[in-house]
Design a protein that fits this description.
Layout: E1 7-9, H1 32-37, H2 43-46, H3 56-70, E2 73-75, E3 82-90, E4 93-101
Antiparallel strand pairs: 1-2, 3-4
């Protein structure tokens, strides 16, 4: 296990984590509520919309780069191991998942 410097929301510039997060992309049926919560909701990176002359993946990269340059997202100051839990409801079902993100170096 090797710690790494993750990319985190800057809570001084992006208000309230509840408005910034969304369920995993593969369980979202309607993206509109997440787009409406905050201009910095992670839905814009997970399920970006196509723009005229730009596919969704280029759009996600541009948004990510823009948020980094504005300081909305920033590298963690320290190398860390990240554990997080998500709880969410989709339609009539409730879901919970725990994740541990580790950085590994190919040898």
């Amino acid at each position: 296990m090797k710690p790494f410097r993750g990319i985190l929301y800057n809570t001084d510039k992006a208000d309230g984590i509840a408005g910034l997060v969304c369920p995993p992309y593969d369980v979202i049926e309607n993206t509109d509520p997440y787009y409406e919560r905050s201009p910095f909701n992670a839905i814009r990176l997970e399920l970006p919309r196509d723009l005229p002359g730009m596919d969704r993946y280029r759009n996600a990269k541009n948004i990510f780069d823009d948020w980094l340059s504005q300081g909305i997202l920033m590298p963690d100051m320290n190398e860390s191991v990240y554990l997080y839990e998500q709880e969410f409801t989709v339609d009539s079902g409730s879901f919970s998942q725990d994740r541990l993100h580790l950085s590994s170096k190919a040898r």
